[in-house]
Amino acid sequence: MKIRAAILEEMGRPRPYALSRPLTIAEIDLAPPGRGEVLVRITAAGLCHSDLSVINGDRPRPTPMALGHEAAGVVEDLGDGVADLAPGDRVALVFVPSCGCCAPCAEGRPALCEPAAKANGAGEMLGGGRRIARDGRPIHHHLGVSAFAEYAVVSRRSLVKVPADLPPVEAALFGCAVLTGVGAVANTARIAPGSTVAVIGLGGVGLAALLGAAACGAARIVAIDIEPEKLALAGTLGASDMVDARDPDAAERVRDLTAGGVDYAFEMAGSAKALELAWRITRRGGTTVTAGLPNPAQRLSLPPVALVAEERTLKGSYVGSCVPSRDIPRYVALYRQGRLPVDRLLGETLALDDINAAFDNLADGKARRQVIRF
Fold first, then answer.
1. Residue at 162 is within a domain
2. How far apart, in Å, are the Cα atoms of 16 and each of 22, 64, 362?
3. How does pLDDT run across 307-343, given as a tens digit for each residue?
4. Residue 133: Cβ within 10 Å count
5. How far apart are the first and last CA of the chain?
6. Which domain holds residue 244?
7. What is the rounded (10 degree) CA torsion for 95, 100, 104, 109?
């Protein structure tokens, strides 16, 4: 079938993207779903920093590539072997499908699925190969989803069913921002009620982490960013203190506010400098968690002796250490109870044709979660 999609032609085009137009809105061919795959009509797709990291070259991927990985949609058709979904079902798309058989999957850590990591890096489907093409030439998939498009063929293992009455623009956030941010707090760090928390970087993932910290019972939450508007928003979402990351005394201020440092610091900015700040504001015996994805060339310098003498912990968190089929329904339930106000993260709703200018807004660090509505 013919569909419209946003295709990244090459990485590293200069800003402003509204002029250089790294993403081309093109008509492409979409193959029918193969065995274990599902055809989904995309209803909403969020713009995430992980997409921007491919556009600017921080996360190298093969091109041309159909971008987009945070999305919601409606099941349209089923490939052979898919018996637990039906046309009309509403689904959230997950950007790391899990094979269920490799060592990480067997350990209950599907975010680290080895076949999925290999397929995602190659721009292919979990089952191998590609399902999209232009003029007979294959186009690479982005993280098995490629959701900046009217339709997508994805692995059944990339889908989690959601309630039919969950608005699409909200449902989309559960596949990335909420999984990654809330999961980093609840799964990776497993914060204790009454603990102190800091979140550095208040994009969609960082704000979701803040919501997660509040839902998990953190007693004090310090929000850290360079944008005054985002700091003000954090104050309405449960942050007790707001700190400008550009302040040369930011680390000292956080330590003063928290009697020596926080129990848990979360770096969500995708920067080694931000991670160093997170480390500096973590107390003795505390835990520093990073879910940002900086350029691979960036390096971190830390005193190793502190790991021992201060019993410090530094942890990475990918997809919030989540089990999506377990955690998305849990987080949706918390949202519907009013305990996880994910809708407060939403910013502008866009058309697909506005996508290049929208990535300028994201790169500027000023936008709330922008969502393309199909």
1. yes
2. 10, 20, 11
3. 999 999 999 999 999 999 999 999 999 999 999 999 9
4. 13
5. 17
6. 181-318
7. 60
